[in-house]
Amino acid sequence: MGSLTDLLQPGAAAGWLLLPSALVLGVLHGLEPGHSKTIMTAFIIAVRGTVAQAVLLGLAATVSHTSVVWVVALVGMHFGSQYDGAVAEPYFQMASAFLIIAIALWMLWRTWREQLRLSAAARQHVHLHDYGRDPMSWPMPTRSGAGLPPEM
Question: Which of 91, 100, 115, 150 is most buried by a 10 A CB count?
Answer without folding.
Answer: 150
